[in-house]
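Project outcomes to date are best conveyed with an example. Our students and postdoctoral researchers have been running inverse folding experiments weekly, and each run begins with a structure described purely in tokens. The record below, which covers 535 residues, was selected by the lab manager from last quarter's runs and is presented without edits.
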């Protein structure tokens, strides 16, 4: 998502500290009583909720980042699945896995039982649209005795423990799925409505979506160290109030609660931190990092890649030769050096340097068609401004494409107002930042969701038989190393289509007040606040 200035590198937290930061997620190394009496934290987030805090879409990461929700598993600093609500698991023959649950309670006071877990996962399979983590997967869950749940997929899925770490597969209590009009567990002020996050509550007294579907309500029904109790805002949730959940299985959080502001403008977010209005500000723009005192800046490499997605099904980029011309026109190194001021890595593929298995030489795509002169071909290039660097990236691309002979119209919106049109193919090209490991932690699942014919987040609208075959081949590999190699081969097939042009691999910058400790620097961008976060 983000990037950071080299001249500040020595002052920033290095990646090896991630292990300790992740440990704070589940309460260790802090004792259960250490958080008693802790003050509240004021947090500025970049993306407002777009779907009334639905756990099945982009809002799921808002909930996990704020310590509200969690799943059966979570990712560790190396991208492996480790225990969360499940303390262990074993694989059966075929497509079955058995997960043994730890003793835990939901925020409504009820116990986390096998029946409740199976019900939560079953609800996720019936969501429309479905969670990205379940793209191409048919999943069933059933309770087994007092502590175990069997999760089965129609075809063997070696990545299931990774998949179940997805924020969109968070476990909620049965009460979350029984909401009826007028019974939302959390209070809203008049005018609270849809609220957005890039791959974010409701009218007063309502708990249904605009199309009349019953809403899933995570307020007071999750299992994390903080419980969502209130949202306010005119047309979108601009503020949220969270209280500490005293019965959290991982121990009492240090902070007594969170007061969250959703501030889409990066400069305003940074100003709020600098003026002392908030204790933490996520996603500080590169241009604003130098305005903060060095001790307040935190940096971490991420699995997020900014790329140019070309509409392969309609408009000028339906022609592979025109896509090739656009690819050749792009100078990604200029973006890394100028827009990100040297604090992002030039895009080498879909998977960046935060993923150690993706380092080293990669197969070069071959068989691409020759580029043809665009001849003043008109096109619309779209992006969003929640991440302040993206409009500037788009402006540079506009100049580069114009120099190559394209006539480029630029359109910039807030993300929640852009996503549906982008997925529907209403733009010729889109500049977007995507954390490739966000949804499942599995590179194959990411490729399936973003670049196959049946993918649910296919901004480039790629539908290519060779890509589908390569992704399916990668998905058949059970061994982690073999799966990663096959994912890199599938990446080559994707790049051969010229439907996506990788631009930069980002680092993330958080602004953290000098008195704040225990912020979670997560390369997968799923967590930010945990039991050890305090001031």
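After processing, the design step wrote out the following sequence:
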């Amino acid at each position: 998502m983000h990037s950071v200035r080299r001249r500040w590198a020595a002052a920033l937290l290095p990646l090896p500290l991630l292990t300790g930061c992740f440990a704070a997620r589940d309460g260790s190394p802090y004792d259960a009583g250490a958080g008693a009496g802790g003050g509240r934290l004021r947090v500025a987030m970049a993306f407002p909720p777009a779907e009334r805090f639905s756990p099945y879409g982009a809002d799921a990461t808002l909930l996990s980042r704020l310590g509200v929700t969690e799943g059966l598993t979570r990712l560790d600093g190396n991208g492996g699945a480790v225990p969360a609500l499940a303390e262990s698991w074993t694989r059966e023959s075929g497509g079955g896995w058995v997960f043994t649950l730890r003793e835990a309670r939901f925020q409504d006071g009820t116990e986390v039982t096998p029946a409740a877990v199976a019900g939560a996962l079953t609800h996720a399979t019936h969501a429309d649209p479905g969670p990205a983590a379940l793209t191409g997967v048919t999943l069933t869950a059933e309770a087994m005795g007092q502590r175990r749940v069997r999760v089965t997929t129609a075809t063997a899925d070696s990545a299931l423990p990774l998949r179940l770490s997805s924020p969109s597969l968070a476990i909620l209590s049965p009460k979350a799925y029984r909401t009826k009009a007028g019974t939302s567990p959390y209070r809203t002020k008049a005018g609270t409505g849809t609220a957005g996050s890039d791959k974010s509550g409701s009218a007063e007294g309502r708990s249904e979506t605009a199309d009349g579907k019953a809403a899933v309500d995570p307020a007071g029904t999750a299992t994390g160290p903080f419980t969502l109790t209130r949202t306010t805002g005119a047309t979108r949730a601009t503020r949220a109030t969270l209280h500490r959940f005293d019965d959290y299985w991982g121990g009492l959080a240090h902070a007594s609660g969170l007061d969250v502001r959703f501030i889409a403008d990066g400069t305003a977010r940074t100003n709020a931190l600098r003026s002392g209005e908030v204790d933490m500000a996520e996603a500080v723009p590169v241009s604003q990092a130098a305005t903060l005192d060095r001790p307040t800046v935190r940096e971490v490499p991420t699995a997020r890649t900014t790329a140019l997605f070309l509409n392969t099904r309609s408009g000028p980029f339906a022609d592979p030769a025109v896509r090739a011309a656009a690819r050749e026109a792009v100078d990604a190194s200029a973006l890394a050096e100028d827009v990100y001021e040297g604090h992002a890595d030039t895009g080498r593929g879909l998977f960046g340097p935060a993923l150690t298995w993706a380092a080293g030489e990669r197969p070069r795509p071959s068989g691409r068609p020759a580029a043809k002169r665009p001849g003043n071909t008109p096109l619309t290039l779209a992006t969003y401004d929640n991440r302040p660097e993206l409009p500037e990236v788009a402006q540079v691309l506009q100049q580069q494409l114009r120099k190559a002979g394209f006539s480029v119209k630029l359109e910039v919106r807030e993300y929640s107002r852009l996503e549906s049109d982008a997925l529907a193919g209403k733009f010729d090209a889109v500049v977007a930042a995507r954390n490739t490991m966000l949804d499942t932690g599995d590179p194959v699942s990411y490729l399936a969701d973003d670049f196959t014919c049946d993918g649910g987040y296919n901004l480039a609208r790629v539908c290519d038989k060779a890509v589908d075959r390569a992704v399916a081949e990668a998905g058949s590999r059970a061994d982690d190393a073999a799966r990663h190699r096959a994912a890199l081969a599938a990446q080559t097939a994707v790049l051969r289509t010229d439907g996506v042009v990788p631009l930069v691999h980002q680092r993330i910058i958080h602004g953290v007040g000098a008195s704040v400790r225990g912020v979670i620097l997560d390369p997968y961008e799923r967590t930010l606040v945990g039991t050890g976060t305090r001031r």
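DSSP finds 13 helices and 18 strands in the chain. The mean pLDDT is 85. The training component of this project remains on track.
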